[in-house]
Amino acid sequence: GALLVSERIDREELCGALSPCTLSFEIVVENPLELYSGAVEIQDINDNDPVFPSSQARLEISESVVAGARFPLESAQDPDVGINSLQTYQLSANPHFVLDVQTRVDGSKYAELVLEKELDREEQRELHLVLTALDGGSPPRSAHVQIHIDVVDANDNAPVFNQSTYKASVRENTPSGTLVTRISAYDLDDGPNGDIVYSFSSHTPAKVRELFALDSATGELRVKGQLDYEESKLYEIYLQAKDKGAAPGVAHCKVLVEVVDVNDNIPEVTVTSVYSPVPEDAAPGTVVALLSVTDLDSHDNGLILVQVSDVNDNAPKSSQDSYDVYVLENNMPGIPILNVSATDPDLGRNAHLSYTLLQGDPTVGHLFSINRENGTLYLLTSLDHEDQVEFSMVVQVQDGGSPPLATNVSVSVFVTDLNDNAPTVLYPHPNTTATYTDVVAPGTPAGHIVTKVVAVDADAGYNAWISYTLLQATDSSLFSVGLHSGEIFTARQLREDDAPQHTLVILLKDHGEPVLSTSATVSISVAEMVKEVLTDLTDVAPTNDTRRHVTFYLILAVILVSAAFFITMLSVGIFKCYKWRQSKELFNSSRSTLYRTPGPFHHIDAVRGGFTPPNFYHQVYLTTDSRQSDLLCKKPFTSSPLGSRQSTIRNGEPGLYHQIVGTASRLPTPAE
């Protein structure tokens, strides 16, 4: 049973760089029948010296290189493993460089020169250094290389890689010429000093150069040899970019290439026969042969797998059921505003998702678009808050199964307001040649409201809040304007020596950012009666007899129509009061009829600047029976004993505004 060595064993020849180095065997023992597996580990001894690829190395280093710059050196190779392999490097003493020993992923060592003190070509044109490689044996073995450094004039800019470490993965058995990755560096210099040449670093192992090829012009790293996952799972490749200057600048990067295992090894079945032939009277359970199955592949590639096919039984699921998106108006067309995210736990086509914008509203299809592959929602045109504030749409996420499953996600897009509209003057109308003149009587006391500037702003919120200031006036001490109401009133009592005609320029500003503004011009005449106003208007009108008479008759017609309207409304009011008193007496006589009694009321004030007194309103009583809703009368405004709440709204008719006063009404109690 002794296991003997039949010939001289060389661990480096049998296993190379693999550690531990083992030889496997099997032993069959009969009577009783048993199978044993064994392994012999070949231990390493320090019988190899480190070896440099060449006995001399030459470097060209610019004098402009700053302290801290690194320069890779050729690595020594030692076929021994473990402590007997290459362990460290040493550098001869010098005032400029120190040595930094680095360790690769596989545990091997390499050295880099690190500039500690900047070079000066005028002081020293070249340097001679000695690099020593030492293994860890006892005693250690070593190798030496002479390093000759030429100090050259500066090339202002060295190439720079866009990243210091690149990572890539490639399947084993990939055909030669397959692109692994592309490195990229740039150089700010012009001409040859800016032309970059890519190459392997000097300490790149020869095995890597056999497996990979680098295009010196494009930086493309391609497969050159046959990759085998079972031989090496990871390659650490050091590359450099050098310009073509007289003193070329050099940049270095590292590429980590992971070899992905493929199922390229079939299972091997080993049959070990015990005896043959088998007797016909062999008892059941008699061992005929021993079988063993092995697969050189790793992980799942080395198992006997049973695959479960996927069924499209899961609908896409969005990270949220609805989205609210806020977009500023006046946006740039074509911008992305939302990414609808969804997942599907199925596999393959069953998990391939597509995004569709359902065309419920045809307007949405013209304004919005969605990327079918990634769910990015784009805005195709510029939106206007004043046109539409909100858009609602539905995004359907559908998988590629058969039949397909889908999920709907609702999206609401809100257009937020920008201050892009200046205030618009409604009265006095700015785009007309007619002159609106408001009248005030001499001796009018301070605080009397003469007229009002009416304006609107198409924006919303704070952007539409308008303030009024007096920008220019014939007599700045005579009139003032309400900051937020736009009402123009007398600041003091009018005197006889005041000018008969006044022109006011009102500045209207909103409160947006930036502030937008406009102006309105108001003409005010100081006169005792309308005749004087008409005379003044005739004086300022163009010398055209026909137009002067037309203007006079128009003003006269307005006065007559206003008087007729007043008399008509007064008559109707008296009639309605009479009808209402009759309905009240009827109610008192018959308690069985139940309707809403007149309570606190709604009234409307209509004031036309300068022509109609601001103290009239129409009172309307509303009952549960719309046929009994009566317009009562027109009378001077008095405050309601039940209290009221007033709010001012704008009207587009020049000089006219409405005041709405509303109170609650109640039903009569059974006792009433």
Describe it.
The chain is mainly beta and about 675 residues long. Among the domains are: about 10-40, no CATH class; about 55-150, Cadherins (Immunoglobulin-like, Sandwich), CATH 2.60.40.60; about 160-260, Cadherins (Immunoglobulin-like), CATH 2.60.40.60; about 315-415, Sandwich (Immunoglobulin-like); about 425-525, Immunoglobulin-like (Sandwich). The protein is built from 5 helices and 43 strands. A hairpin with an 8-residue loop joins strand 40 and strand 41. The termini are far apart.
Task: State the gist of this model.
This protein is mainly β and 672 residues long. The protein contains five helices and 43 strands.
User: What fraction strand?
Assistant: 35-45%
Q: Report the sheet with the most strands, covering strand number, pairing sense and barrel closure.
A: 5 strands, antiparallel
Which CATH class of the domain at 424-526 is shown?
A: Mainly Beta
Which percent range fits the helix content? 10-25%
